[in-house]
Amino acid sequence: MEERGSPDGDPARSLEQGPEGPETPIQVVLRVRPMSAAELRRGEQSALHCSGTRTLQVSPPGGGPDVAFRFGAVLDGARTQEDVFRACGVRRLGELALRGYSCTVFTFGQTGSGKTYTLTGPPPQGEGVPVPPSLAGIMQRTFTWLLDRVQHLGAPVTLQASYLEIYNEQVRDLLSPGAPRPLPVRWDKTRGFYVEQLRVVEFGSLGALMELLQMGLSRRRSSAHTLNQASSRSHALLTLYISRQTQVPPVDPGEPPVGGKLCFVDLAGSEKVAATGSRGELMLEANSINRSLLALGHCISLLLDPQRKQSHIPFRDSKLTKLLADSLGGRGVTLMVACVSPSAQCLPETLSTLRYASRAQRVTTRPQAPKSPVAKQPQRLEMEILQLQEENRRLRSQLGQRDPKTSGLSGARVSWAQQNLYGMLQEFMLENERLRKEKSQLQSSRDLARDEQRLLAQQVHELERRLLSACYLHQPGPGPAPPCPCVMVPAPSCHPPVPPVPSTAGSLGLPTEGALPAPGRKGRGGGEGRRGELETLL
């Protein structure tokens, strides 16, 4: 009997212990669903037999050699949903997510093998009708455990959720209101591949999270064909984002809080178009599903080759491999639940799923949690602690060497000096304030003096202009011209220096009535009349 799968050891135990080494293999749990009523009516036989808790034996109906596959855990059709939840160790993944790790649980298998039933239980019987607790899947049980676990944590926790599907190589948001529209998948150096404009909803209760789950399930694409009456036609990813607030503030103010995520991936089933009888749109959907699963299998095969793993893995070949890149070959912790049908009629697809799962459990990842602010700079903090300890020791030594009397006198002198310095500082502040006010008053007086000087200068200029105009109005007669009134007085009197505040023409040094020619002196041309005109102008 040929045996394939994981080597000796207990992968289930290593799954419960969490990632301890630098590399952690993908853990694989196999679930064999019971024979369906249709298969029993057709008289089909089972080709699978569980041998222990970790080995599955395949017996071909034609009489070929048996083949055995070993996995972390093998669950037959008699196991309940609670048994599957416990065997998969999802609680441990939730604990790792609370510690900041990125964890992923995804199901894989042929269409109709029980993938969606394992994750979410049977489809709802009607709107608003909950799934019976005994039939709840891994997701509902994880939600219940997680919300109860968060309530017993000391630090506050923020929970958020997103739900999307990949339908015909288009990413659609299952939580966004309105008609679905394709969303782009981007790549960032720190975040890796992510979906742009994806709606992330914060929740605080189990009921709110269950409503988000039911909303996404109702909007997900599904159709009926020969092998499955409710076949999922898209890959669905529901992600829980867990952020814990720490007492130590981050070094970078823009740094997000420390947290992890827990992602549930329900892969659409691989199928043969001839067996399902798909036509038209169903055939296009089947081709898209098979291409994305083929790209996923190709990436897994390359990850098994140590030489190729270090070079290039074609995660960009499909949207599915982009979003699962971190789970397959990155820094996350991954659990795969492979679902198969026991019917001998489905043996080719079952063998393909078993080989697929056997390769997947040999793929290793390097789980890394986001480092806390304290863990990012351990050397710097250690150096600061050593420096503070040395300074404390030095100060204690100096304090012990000082004389108590001298220390008391020195303390009194320091106190007296501090008081004197404080008084001097107050005096300086008051003097400074007084000088500032005095400076402000002097500046105001200077501005007023400048304005008054400017006004006086304008008045002097105007008087000079009028005086010159009066001189030019003197017209000579037939006889000798009488002297100009400006000439009859001394020259300095015609243009004297300007006093500070002139008020009258006499104070300005201009000719007054007494300085003009006497009334008895008459010149040629009527000097007395000219004099009257000059007085009128002035």
From TrEMBL:
Localization, per the record, is: Cytoplasm, Cytoskeleton
Specify the superkingdom. Answer: Eukaryota
Amino acid composition bias (Basic and acidic residues), ranges on this chain: 1-13, 525-538
What are the residue boundaries of the Kinesin motor domain, all occurrences included? 25-363
Region Disordered, residue ranges: 1-25, 44-63, 499-538
Quote the record's binding site residues for ATP.
G109, Q110, T111, G112, S113, G114, K115, T116
> Which residues lie in coiled coils?
425-466
Q: Which UniProt keywords apply?
A: ATP-binding, Coiled coil, Cytoplasm, Cytoskeleton, Microtubule, Motor protein, Nucleotide-binding
| Broad class of the protein's primary localization | cytoplasm
Keyword Coiled coil carried by entry: yes
Q: What family, per the record?
A: Belongs to the TRAFAC class myosin-kinesin ATPase superfamily. Kinesin family.
**What protein am I looking at?**
Kinesin-like protein
